[in-house]
UniProtKB/TrEMBL annotation:
GO terms for cellular component: cytoplasm. Its EC number is 2.7.4.6. NCBIfam families: PRK00668.1 (NF001908). GO terms for biological process: CTP biosynthetic process; GTP biosynthetic process; UTP biosynthetic process. Keywords: ATP-binding, Cytoplasm, Kinase, Magnesium, Metal-binding, Nucleotide metabolism, Nucleotide-binding, Phosphoprotein, Transferase. Its cofactor is Mg(2+). The keyword Kinase applies. Belongs to the NDK family. ATP binds at residues 9, 57, 85, 91, 102, 112. GO terms for molecular function: ATP binding; metal ion binding; nucleoside diphosphate kinase activity. Homotetramer. The gene is ndk. This is Nucleoside diphosphate kinase. CDD domains: NDPk_I.
């Protein structure tokens, strides 16, 4: 069983897309094991996007991700990282396939609605930035 970190970004929250996004992930069969509406601190943003430091879009990204509430989520399931990334679609909304979240709702790379971990290793690192382990509720489905 794999876990992944997903985050509806400020644009997705303000456009009222939390429910739509959660519904798509649930219908795929992934299991929500933690979620909260929160403001990302500067320290969390720096840790989360450390790999992009120095890139031309870094400052814009930091300003954006701390600009309003995000909906932080932990999901689990078989190959949860790959499954979520398939549902999310490519980074650039114009390149993302129709039927994916970004393909259906995003026009821009900067405002692309949702973040999804790119590997199981990144997922565990990112979950640790945004969640205490005690906030996550791992369980096996019984129905
Ligand atoms: P995300 O999956 O959150 O990871 C890094 C984010 O940087 C990415 O989504 C985009 O929103 C943003 N970004 C802006 N410009 C670029 C770019 N040229 N390449 C990759 N990511 C970019």
């Amino acid at each position: 069983m794999e876990r992944t970190y997903l985050m509806v970004k400020p644009d997705g929250v303000q456009r009222g897309l939390i429910g739509e996004i959660v519904g798509r992930l649930e219908r795929k069969g992934l299991t929500l094991i933690g979620a909260k509406l929160m403001l990302v601190t500067e320290e969390q943003a720096k840790r989360h996007y450390a790999e992009h430091e120095g890139k031309d879009f870094y400052d814009r990204l930091m300003t954006f991700i701390t600009s309003g509430p995000v909906f932080a989520m932990a999901w689990q399931g078989d190959q949860a990282v790959a499954a979520a990334r398939q549902i999310i679609g490519k980074t650039n909304g114009l390149e993302a396939a129709p039927g994916t979240i970004r393909g259906d709702y995003a026009l821009h790379t900067n405002y692309n609605l949702i973040h999804g971990s790119d590997s199981a290793e990144s997922a565990e690192r990112e979950l640790g930035i945004f969640f205490q382990e005690s906030e996550l509720v791992g369980y096996d489905k019984t129905i």
